[in-house]
Amino acid sequence: MKLIAFILLQFSVIQNQIIEKLNAFQESDGIRHGLLAASVHRISDNKTIINFNEDKVVNSASTFKLITTATAISKLGTNFKYITEVFYSGQIVSGVLVGDLILQSSGDPSFGSERGINTMDDVLTEIIKILKGLNISKIEGNVFVDDETVYQYDSPDSWIWGDMGNYYGALPHKFNVHENYYTVYFEPGNNIGDVARINRLQPFDEDWEIVNLVKTGTRNSGDQVYIYSSPASSTLILKGTVPLGKSNFPVKGSIPNPAKLFRLTLIKTLNNANIAVEDKPEPVGISISTSDLHLIKRFYSQPLQDLARDCNFSSINIYADAFLHTLALNDNGFETFNQGIESMKNHWLSKSLNLSGFNPKDGSGLSPSTYITPKNMTDILSSMTKEPFFANYENTIPVFGQDGSVRYKDPKQKTGGRVRAKSGSIEGTRAFAGYFIDKNGEKYSFMIAVNQYEPNFLEKVKVFLDDFLVDIGSF
């Protein structure tokens, strides 16, 4: 009995110390005009352990990916796989395909990705192999990569134009390839201020109009390039600097029209492999009769739990936003970000959660207008622990100080691997969310966020948040 009382007393002391630190930080220089909010819930009895502005709306940044991946896994299951299919129409006559080659996808964000199981080179090689196996040496018709126009133009109104041309602002489409990003390799000049020449772009659409305004910056200045483009546009404007002395310096941008780029790449690959096909004008508004299609290949993605792990470990925006576009597959399907968000809300409302303050604009947290409360986060994370596949979901979240974007935290390993956390950061926002286990084996969900701090105090915010996770890991 005395031991239990001592443990409870010790726990209470740590709670009070953390709350005192939160109060002091909220009133400190550079922070007092912003908002600090934190929520810690004990899973076993859903008791609030720390409530510091937990009902205030905050920008969640990339911590919102935890909610998107939770929703996707909860609705679709851990073993859900995206499918991309290759068909031909018509018939094969003496080595000539009297018909078309057609690709259709269900929105796989990992198709053609270097981190996935269907890399772009592997996909192209496999298609060539299959066509040669059918003794096809010429395609008389056309090459179609089926995509719905709405995927090219639907984007959250609150996304920033300065983000959308960069790799982290790539839109999800019905057909995605190479995570919808290309890499441009720069050759800096010999002096600061010199023009930085473009060596190459990979992959590349020859119809792109490149406006290169990038200059040479100081040594070790890193990637200071911003790329401006819009969905389905062929104009890319590149501004900023690359560091002096870094030859072939890589910068990633978002592919405005991935279906078109892949189609042109496939046509070029077919011709290089001696399968003749004419590069006819890109089809618009095609209508494909399923009765005339012959399936020749079905590419499956990795299971959803693996994609979700990549999403949370590497904070891949396009994966999260593609999951959002997929949520209604178990309903009636959908076409827009807004419908995906409604499907997400309805899912958690069906589990009797209170979503007051819950107002996301996307699935990735890229939008500066995605607002939730810390309590929204901890309620959803707590609800996930009741799902039969919770262990699979929990494994998609990095271990603080060991994995993903938080692997360099907690260098002294004070948390002992007992904290799983997703980080989040956009301008004016830093946040963490996830789970931790105390020294007695109790599990908790948590979120902490700092919004609208003064820019010069970023390092102060980062240190405080790291220390907070170490503190809760000491429960």
Layout of strands and helices, then pairs:
Elements: H1 2-26, E1 35-42, E2 47-52, E3 58-59, H2 65-76, E4 83-89, E5 91-93, E6 96-98, E7 101-105, H3 120-133, E8 138-139, E9 143-145, H4 149-153, H5 161-164, E10 181-187, E11 197-202, E12 209-217, E13 224-228, E14 235-243, E15 249-254, H6 258-272, E16 276-277, E17 293-300, H7 304-314, H8 317-326, H9 337-349, E18 371-372, H10 374-384, H11 390-394, E19 419-426, E20 429-437, E21 443-451, H12 458-472
Helix pairs in contact: 2-7, 2-8, 2-10, 7-8, 8-9
Give a summary of the structure in a few sentences.
This protein is of the alpha+beta class and 475 residues long. The chain has helices spanning 2-26, 65-76, 120-133, 149-153, 161-164, 258-272, 304-314, 317-326, 337-349, 374-384, 390-394, 458-472, and strands spanning 35-42, 47-52, 58-59, 83-89, 91-93, 96-98, 101-105, 138-139, 143-145, 181-187, 197-202, 209-217, 224-228, 235-243, 249-254, 276-277, 293-300, 371-372, 419-426, 429-437, 443-451.
Account of the 3D structure:
With 475 residues, the chain is an alpha+beta fold. It folds into 2 domains: 7-79 and 305-472, 3-Layer(aba) Sandwich (Beta-lactamase); 84-302, no CATH class. Helices cover 29% and strands 25% of the residues. The chain has helices at residues 2-26, 65-76, 120-133, 149-153, 161-164, 258-272, 304-314, 317-326, 337-349, 374-384, 390-394, 458-472, and strands at 35-42, 47-52, 58-59, 83-89, 91-93, 96-98, 101-105, 138-139, 143-145, 181-187, 197-202, 209-217, 224-228, 235-243, 249-254, 276-277, 293-300, 371-372, 419-426, 429-437, 443-451. A 5-stranded antiparallel beta sheet has the order 2-1-21-20-19. Helix 2 packs antiparallel against helix 7 and helix 2 runs parallel beside helix 8 (317-326). Residues 2-9 have low confidence and may be disordered.
